[in-house]
């Protein structure tokens, strides 16, 4: 690239082109992130202007905080079920909807719809569905399991949260899988079917290996979204009944902003970050090994 | 088409239609109940409304302060998306064309930061900006969206700038354009499709975001639509009619845009995912 003459002009260009982005990025992401690590070693209560260092006490408090580990293990369970269900359903829908069926684009648009709406609104809609519509159905059609609201029972409320999450995200992942499937070259598929591979063999031996990059992206996204779930959790169950469906994000939020235990809250957020980073990096690292060239 | 193939595509069609109905039906329940009185809703949430009375809507519209919330959401979303795209495109372009070690590391830092979840930053963010007295303002929020949204935008632009031939820009520079003019006359127009993709992804995120604005915007008159909806729900927990209407009002703008631009939105998500 042709450079300007003089150090000053070069610096001016650099600042003009990268200044705004980098300044915002550093002051919003990097400094708070580093300051957050510092906060985990202090006993800030959210009000006082002085902080005192307390060493690793907050981290010890994290390990002693039974509620945190309860919400963390619940989140793990939730992430497991949502990631599997979202990706299986999304892939199947995408697979059927790339076959040139009539009305294909209407189906795609319909399945994508829940994604456009914010988690808060979705949570409230489903709260009404579970508390009113399904209960009414249960009572009038004598379906025992629906006749009392799912949201009042810890176990069923957990599954309600899983159902809403899958419904919210399946369409989004479906679109990414559709993008991947349309990239699978037609000529090798035709060659395979001439060679006598039936559709099941073609799917298993050719489509799935070629789709590994799409699986990496979708599983990465659904893992991230699952661990960080907050809006839907808040609007659907508020973590209830009796904090039985409180996911880890909500726990951290309450620890910091409601119990005013900022040091411990930040330490928990940081522990959460390390675990999620570890899980997603492992996921990407191991699935990269499965990639094949078309 | 053999008979077997016709049968199988009919079965596929029926199964898909059933799934589609399951996907859409929550919105249908929302809509029919938004026109009903509270009594009618609680006694039978499946019945159709007797009339399309707009009482609930008027009620929700006023109490939510809909116009103000909508305006706040619109200003925040439009400005954030605009600035993210503009600044990120310039930065990505600079990184590609000045491929020094320093710029490479800066770019890598931005990409690596994408794995940091918002929850790990929210507490120090509130502390820092609170002590600077910068909370409770739209402008702070827009600034934060630029900070949080830049990484992904720079990353996507970076991939596309690489595919633009250098010769165009070099010719412009030799003809006496400054770097700035070259960028705006030649590079930015070429990047338009990418800008559309990034803007769609960011609109979906910022318009619906709840946690960040709920921490930053404290005053009722500053509220965005999701905040206003949440607050309205907290105050009217038992009066279902206006609640349903408020949810419909919140969804309405998105659905309208989706009807007109669904092709582009779905395309945007597709292109944004292929990295």
Automatic annotation (TrEMBL), chain B:
It is a multi-pass membrane protein. It is found in: Cell membrane. It comes from the Bacteria. It holds the Pfam family BPD_transp_1. GO terms for biological process: transmembrane transport. The chain crosses the membrane at residues 12-32, 66-95, 107-130, 142-161, 182-207, 240-261. Keywords: Cell membrane, Membrane, Transmembrane, Transmembrane helix, Transport. Residues 70-261 form the ABC transmembrane type-1 domain. PROSITE patterns: ABC_TM1. This is Carbohydrate ABC transporter permease. It comes from Paenibacillus polymyxa.
